[in-house]
Amino acid sequence: MDDKEQTRQKILAAAGRRFQHYGYAKTTMSEIAADLKMSTGNLYRFFPSKLDIAEAYALAHESDEEAMMASIGALPKSAAERLIEHHRALLDYTFTMIDESQKIFELAQAIGRERPSYVNRRLANERVYLSSILKDGIEDGLFAPNEDINRLAEMIQCATMKFRYPQLHNCFSLDTLRRELEGTMDLIFKGLIKR
After folding, report:
1. Backbone angles phi, psi at 146, to 5 degrees
2. Which site among 3, 17, 136, 137 is 20 to 30 Å from 170 CA-CA?
3. Which positions ≥6 away from 173 have C-beta within 8 Å?
4. Angle between the 174-192 and 79-100 helix axes, to the nearest 10 degrees?
């Protein structure tokens, strides 16, 4: 790792501490710079804005989620079992993360509002894992054939959006969300199963 990348990592760590303690809205570029004993101008050389730091911070923490989706996709289970496990794991992961820190929820809201391209890219990444599971289910004869697996994955994302995004979790307990996810997945499976 070169010096520039080391500095970027230090900035993300310092910003992360501030985001988690004070929240995104109450964190300023000058405070992050002061924590690192660097000038605000120098900080801007690495990140053009606080939102750029927030997005890079979130991106750095996506790897855990990606690893989780990949490991579920590789489980020696049926496609149906992996599909439900995929959604359960993402619900639990997101709910727990937000439940532990409302400041992270605030950060997620800011990124989602200001950088819809970030959210769209994350959805596209998740569709890769969903499409793989669906393809396996079709090849195994469990799911009905479908000519556009990516679109099918996108429609499943639409049907399960409530369980995926923390902005929709505020009014519900985890038990309620889990129960609703089970019912939603039952309906999805009725549409997927080969007759």
Report:
1. -150, 130
2. 17
3. none
4. 160
Which residue's entry shows tokens 């690495």? 46
Percent composition of the chain: helix, strand, coil (DSSP 3-state, to 5): 80, 0, 20
Question: Which single residue is written with the structure tokens 């760590």?
Answer: 13
| This prediction's pTM | 0.85
Q: Which string of b and e fits 100-130 if b means at least 16 CB within 10 Å?
A: eeebbbbbbebbbeebeebeeebbeebbebb
Classify residue 152 as exposed, middle or buried by CB count within 10 Å of its CB (0-12, 13-18, 19+). Answer: buried
**pLDDT tens for residues 117-134?**
998 999 999 999 999 999
Report how far apart the first and last C-alpha atoms of the chain are (Å, whole number): 54
Q: How far apart are CA 183 and CA 156, in angstroms?
A: 13
- Residue 51 burial by Cβ neighbours in a 10 Å radius (0-12, 13-18, 19+): middle
Q: What is the pLDDT of residue 167?
A: 66
Q: What is the DSSP string of 120-133?
A: HHHHHHHHHHHHHH
Q: DSSP of 6-50, one letter per residue?
A: HHHHHHHHHHHHHHHHH-STT--HHHHHHHTT--HHHHHHH-SSH
Give dist(CA 55, CA 42) in Å, integer. Answer: 19
